[in-house]
């Protein structure tokens, strides 16, 4: 079985070395494993929650896309897209918003932290809190559930959001009586490096202690390394490798034998200046070739745009049929489909075989026949006119429909012409159509 792995990257900053070692590199490697169907996206709707500087959002999307491609993400293999190119995300977000308890959102860490800060400042608890921030976890749940991801690799700070996504998914499945959503599992990489920044605290933009990955080129990388804090031991004095941030950074990039050699040198008196030189050389070895690709990509944004558009269309092929199913489940159905599709409240309708109409990615109108358990029985041809699709749907509920069994499924004919096809057995299709006729 293939495992669908999905993760999003908020586009508010420029990736630094800590992002690379802690998130980007392991994600790209994981995407290369057999049996993994990886989805990576730029969470640019999320960016709007944190950042109202359009130039920064725009620049960050470009830089982050270029970074992921430069470090070796294969967009042929991975579905790589921008959240904002998938309008189904916002539609699903609304459906989920309508089943999410406000109380659940009250407990979200990010929101609670904002309230705590406000209380400490003595201002209104919700001062400066937007609905975007408050419902952040719902949007994130939509990202994940839209593609029925099994595993979601994230940082520890996101674990609660995954719990919320499961919670919301379960609630929707339960309310509308279907297995619409897979319950996603969080994946926190335990052994992945959390890199120390220049001052030894966790490398983070908010501490202003980052080492750039590509920005500023080799010079900026060396410059940052020269500013890494060390203790005051002189050349010749033994150093405590484990306690040294330089060593931790080196270890995140080097092979075990290189690491052992570096440790020995530090312990036998290597000076900090030389140690920084060695660290810089080692980082350059990995980073220089990627930087070259990055610069190439940054000089050619149209190419990145094409790659992202192709990714979006791949993603929407999955998102749009799911949304069609969800629209039907919640009762947002076409009125022209006749009594079957329009009948019954959620729970009842979900137990019967049913037609579900949808708009395909090319803009045409189609429908599916689903069995009571949600199995797809038929897929109609495309119709430019939604009324034609609706009329055909009604027509299929009359008794004179012809079914033809094929080696690989079943075809439905009207007046000798095939109008819909399905992967399964004719019996099941016949039964489902019969059950619709009896209603
Ligand atoms: N909230 C995530 C972060 O800040 C980014 C994100 C948005 C995400 N949507 C997601 C991560 C969906 C995983 C899955 O890191």
UniProtKB/TrEMBL annotation:
Matching Pfam families: tRNA-synt_1b
Catalytic reaction(s) noted: tRNA(Trp) + L-tryptophan + ATP = L-tryptophyl-tRNA(Trp) + AMP + diphosphate + H(+)
Enzyme Commission number(s) from the entry: 6.1.1.2
GO cellular component, one term: cytosol
Annotated keywords: Aminoacyl-tRNA synthetase, ATP-binding, Cytoplasm, Ligase, Nucleotide-binding, Protein biosynthesis
Protein's GO biological process: tryptophanyl-tRNA aminoacylation
Binding site for L-tryptophan: 143
Entry-linked InterPro entries: aa-tRNA-synth_Ic, Rossmann-like_a/b/a_fold, Trp-tRNA-ligase, Trp-tRNA-ligase_bac-type, Trp-tRNA_synthetase, YegP-like_sf
Superkingdom field: Bacteria
Annotated positions binding ATP: 10-12, 18-19, 155-157, 195, 202-206
Motif ('HIGH' region) on chain: 11-19
Cross-referenced NCBIfam families: PRK12284.1, trpS
Subunit structure: Homodimer.
Sequence similarity: Belongs to the class-I aminoacyl-tRNA synthetase family.
Function (record text): Catalyzes the attachment of tryptophan to tRNA(Trp).
Protein name: Tryptophan--tRNA ligase
Protein species of origin: Bordetella pseudohinzii
């Amino acid at each position: 079985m293939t495992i669908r792995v999905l993760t999003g990257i908020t586009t508010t900053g420029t990736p630094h070395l800590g992002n690379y070692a802690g998130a980007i590199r392991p994600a790209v490697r994981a995407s290369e494993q057999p049996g993994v169907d990886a989805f990576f996206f730029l969470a640019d709707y999320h960016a709007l929650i944190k950042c109202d500087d359009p130039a920064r959002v725009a620049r960050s999307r470009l830089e982050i896309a270029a970074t992921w491609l430069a470090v070796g993400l294969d967009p042929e293999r991975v579905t790589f897209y921008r959240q904002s190119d998938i309008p189904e995300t916002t539609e699903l977000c609304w459906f989920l918003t309508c089943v999410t308890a406000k109380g659940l959102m009250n407990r979200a860490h990010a929101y609670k932290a904002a309230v705590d800060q406000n209380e400490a400042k003595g201002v209104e608890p919700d001062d400066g809190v937007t609905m975007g921030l408050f419902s952040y976890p719902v949007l994130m749940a939509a990202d994940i559930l839209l593609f029925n991801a099994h595993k979601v690799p994230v940082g520890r700070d996101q674990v609660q959001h995954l719990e919320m996504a499961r919670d919301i998914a379960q609630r929707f499945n339960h309310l509308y009586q279907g297995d619409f959503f897979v319950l996603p599992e969080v994946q926190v990489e335990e052994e992945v490096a959390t890199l120390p920044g220049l001052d030894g605290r966790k490398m983070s933009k908010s501490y202003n202690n980052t080492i750039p990955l590509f920005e500023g080129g080799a010079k900026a990388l060396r410059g940052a390394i020269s500013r890494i804090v060390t203790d005051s031991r002189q050349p010749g004095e033994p150093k405590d490798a484990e306690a040294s941030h330089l060593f931790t950074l080196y270890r995140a990039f080097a092979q075990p034998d290189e690491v052992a050699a570096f440790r020995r040198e530090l312990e036998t008196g290597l000076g900090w200046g030389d140690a920084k030189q060695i660290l810089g050389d080692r980082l350059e070895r990995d980073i220089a070739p990627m930087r070259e690709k990055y610069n190439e990509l940054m000089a050619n944004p149209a190419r990145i745009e094409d790659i992202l558009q192709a990714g979006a269309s791949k993603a929407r092929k999955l998102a749009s049929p799911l949304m069609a199913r969800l629209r039907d489940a919640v009762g947002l159905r076409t009125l022209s489909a006749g009594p079957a599709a329009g009948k019954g409240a959620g729970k009842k309708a979900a137990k019967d075989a049913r037609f579900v109409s949808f708009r395909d990615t090319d803009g045409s109108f189609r429908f599916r026949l689903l069995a009571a358990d949600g199995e797809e029985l038929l897929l109609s041809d495309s119709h430019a006119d939604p009324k034609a699709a609706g009329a055909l749907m009604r027509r299929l509920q009359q008794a004179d429909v012809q079914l033809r069994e094929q080696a690989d499924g079943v075809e439905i004919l009207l007046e000798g012409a095939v109008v819909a096809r399905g992967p399964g057995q004719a019996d099941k299709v016949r039964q489902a159509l019969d059950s619709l006729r009896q209603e």
